[in-house]
Amino acid sequence: MNSLSKPDLLKDRKKCLICHRAVDIQFRPFCSKRCQHIDLGKWFSGVYSIPSEEIEPVSEEEEN
Ligand SMILES: [Zn+2]
User: Fold this and answer.
1) Each residue of 1-46: pLDDT tens digit?
2) Residue positions in the annotated binding site for Zn(2+)?
3) What cofactor does this protein call for (predicted)?
């Protein structure tokens, strides 16, 4: 009865979210600064694509 299924910690190497290479601990979850910047670029482009509409609160004054 030695069917112990221990988690494969050695296989727990995470992959870069951009290029799926081995992650560098300095730049995780990315493999390099380059991929880090690519992801940042994605973020910023996504942010800038969102139109920022300033909605002014309409104050309705009832005249009686
Ligand atoms: Zn990468």
Assistant:
1) 655 655 544 455 689 999 999 999 999 999 999 999 999 898 878 7
2) 16, 19, 31, 35
3) Zn(2+)
Tokens matching residue 23: 């992650």
CATH architecture of 13-47: 2-Layer Sandwich (3.30)
| Distance (Å, whole) CA 8 – CA 2 | 16
How many angstroms is it from 21 CA to the middle of ligand 1? 6
Longest dimension (CA), the chain: 87
Residue the block writes with tokens 């800038």: 48
Provide the pLDDT for residue 43: 80
